[in-house]
Amino acid sequence: MQKEMLEMNSFHRCVKKGERLHNGAEDCIGLLLVLSGRLRVFTVSDEGKEITLYRLLDRDICLFSASCIMASIQFDVAVEAECDTEMMQISAAIYQKIMRESAAVANYTNELMAMRFSEVMWLMEQVLYKKMDARLAAYLLEEFSYAETETIHMTHEEIARQLGSAREVISRMLKYFMTENLISVSRGKITLLDAEAMRRMAADSMR
Amino acid sequence: MQKEMLEMNSFHRCVKKGERLHNGAEDCIGLLLVLSGRLRVFTVSDEGKEITLYRLLDRDICLFSASCIMASIQFDVAVEAECDTEMMQISAAIYQKIMRESAAVANYTNELMAMRFSEVMWLMEQVLYKKMDARLAAYLLEEFSYAETETIHMTHEEIARQLGSAREVISRMLKYFMTENLISVSRGKITLLDAEAMRRMAADSMR
After folding, report:
1. Any chain A CB within 8 A of the CB of B108?
2. DSSP secondary structure letters along A10-43
3. For B11, which of A6, A30, A106, A123 is 20 to 30 Å away at the CA?
């Protein structure tokens, strides 16, 4: 019943790479269920500086493009397609109606928000405490430079040891670098993709 | 019915200033409804560095002291009483049960989380985009307002810790504020001299 109602009030949408789908609180286009492709969710400062908060991949749902469904969401994010992306766009008004009636849908929404909240907290802790993004970027640049190639062979464990960090922290940050298209990582190999962006990452203390 | 169930599974609790109520994900003491006083919610880095995320005042509810009610909350916060505080402590298990059954309670929880998320996003934007002069001015104004006087007792060290900065940075900025006649500083006391100019300083950051 609810499922049918959602389906009836959703439509299939394809967007091209680089297209801005959502821009702050003034628009409330609805929830976006990614079918294929990738969306980037970010904040923009008054000076136009962007910070990527997280990415949405297959089966992920973008909640904040429907931020009008909750009165207490008092912040703006922007959403952009990072490659050609196919999605279902679900009416905010209908979703809100169903969420108000159904504990299951409301709890699901809760979990969705908690997931995004966790990603933002992770990012903030990295930025505030460790400057681990800058440290890892600087470290990798040095290693690439020593190796005199674009590819180095190192395990996450080794990098963690050298930076006095934990393997889990390094793995997650490398994953973040990958989604930022700074490097590619495969079977113990790390390849530099964007030296310029990596140098910016290393130099920018972000504070 | 739900209200009765919650009341039966809650108890009245008083804590002294400085008491740590909740410490990361390993404990899940339940939701805290503040009746009087003030709770500080903060994160702690591996090195023991603290960042204040937000404060909870009268009628505010602390959700993350019951983070076990949601699987997707993947971050730890600590909660401490900033002054003698009186509260109701509500069982996490009972709240979770009610939240699963009731759309109203689930949606209320959603709004609670969205409120905290908004505060954290605000903080992150301060940290990422704002300059330290504006951040410190905004922080001091808030402290003066909490203290309800023109004089607060805080060391540079404490301020630095709360802002995720270094004591040297804070001392230098306080000195700058003094020379601008915004405040006077003497032996652990900071006195507000020019609230208007201080507010301009805090707002200037938005440029």
Report:
1. no
2. EEEEEE-TT-EEEESTT----EEEEEES-EEEEE
3. A106
What is this structure's pTM? 0.72
Helix, strand, coil in percent for chain B, rounding step 5: 45, 25, 30
Sheet holding B85-90, edge to edge: B10-15, B85-90, B31-36, B61-62
Rounded to a whole number of angstroms, the distance from the CA of B159 to the nearest CA of chain A is 15
Burial letters A105-122, b for 16+ CB under 10 A, else e: bbbebbebbbbbbbbbbb
E-strand spans in chain B?
Answer: 10-15, 20-23, 31-36, 39-44, 50-56, 61-62, 78-81, 85-90, 151-153, 183-186, 189-192
pLDDT values of chain B reduced to their tens digit, one per residue, 207 residues: 788 888 899 999 999 999 999 887 678 999 999 999 999 999 887 667 777 888 899 999 999 999 999 999 988 899 999 899 999 999 999 999 999 999 999 999 999 999 999 989 877 876 666 677 888 998 899 899 888 888 999 999 889 888 877 787 788 789 888 877 899 998 889 999 999 989 988 876 433
Instruction: Please tell me if residue B48 touches chain A, with a CB cutoff of 8 Å.
Output: no
Closest CB to B110 among A45, A106, A123: A106
Asked whether the beta carbons of B61 and B33 are under 8 A apart, the reply is: yes
Instruction: Enumerate the residues of chain B whose CB falls inside 8 A of the CB of residue A117.
Output: 73, 75, 113, 116-117, 120
Residue with tokens 């400062």: A45
Match 């079918």 to its residue by tokens.
Answer: A35
CA distance A61 to A96: 15
Distance CA A113, CA A184 (A): 29
Residue B204: how many other CB atoms lie within 10 Å: 13
Q: Could you tell me if A113 lies within 8 Å of chain B, comparing CB atoms?
A: yes
3-class state of residue A159 by DSSP: helix
Tell me how far apart the alpha carbons of residues B182 and B193 are, in angstroms, rounded to a whole number. 5
Rounded CA gap, B104 and B100, in Å? Answer: 10
In chain A, what residues touch B135 (CB-CB under 8 Å)?
A: none
Tell me the pLDDT band of A205, cut-offs 50, 70 and 90: very low
- Comparing CA positions, the residue from B95, B93, B91, B87 lying closest to residue B112 is B95
* Per-residue pLDDT tens digits for A56-82: 999 999 999 999 999 999 888 999 998
Residues B32/B21, Cβ–Cβ less than 8 Å: yes
